[in-house]
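Can't paste images in this forum, so I'm doing it all in text. The chain is below; anyone willing to post the predicted structure tokens underneath?
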Amino acid sequence: MRAPAAPEHLRFEGLDITVRRSPRRRSLGLTVTVEGQVIVAAPVRASKALLLQLLGKHQAWIKRKVAESRDAWARLPQGAVFFLGRAFRLSLLSQGNPPVQLTRAGMLVQAGTPAAAWPLLQAWYRGEAERLLRERVKYYARGLDLKMLRVELREWRRRWGECHPQEALRFNWRLILLPREILDYVVVHELAHLLEPSHNARFWQRVEQTLPDYRQRREWLNRFGSPFLLWTL
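Text version of the structure:
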């Protein structure tokens, strides 16, 4: 099997653009990643002029998406840890019990280095996420007259939750990093899919009946949530 071609790079309006060519591509595609990287997917024979034409056509959109990405990452102070939408100072301790503790002074972790602290912190996050998500699913399921489904945790890089009727509701454990009202929005979103599988007008009416301000919550998640999918110590 032939190895994929190495990505190319273009400079456009001060940005480094990554070009990924594929023999399977028949048209151009344009994305801005969570990290704010602009990527053009292109057919093998697409000319540089054609690529620049695409970038010029979508220049305003590109600048807006890159600015939004930078703004979202800037909201995560370096060296801090996060819990329910708040930033806390991380303190590494040579000894202590329990291994992770949230106090007014910050997040205390019994570890010598950030690398050693991360597995402990992840385990703590997962425990807190499971507890809170079960609680919020139970609360909102009752209001929607739904039976309680099993809650499972996952770690995805591009998704916050998914609904599997007759099986389980699955949530990204990283929801515990976000404000509680955003976590609640994702819970209600997935529960509403038990009543309406697709994102049609009835679905959004179900969501709005439970969360009248869901649009603001959804906008926050779309604008500021993505960095939390990748954040680590």
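Residues 117-230 form a domain with the Zincin-like fold (CATH 3.30.2010.10). The longest strand covers residues 15-22.
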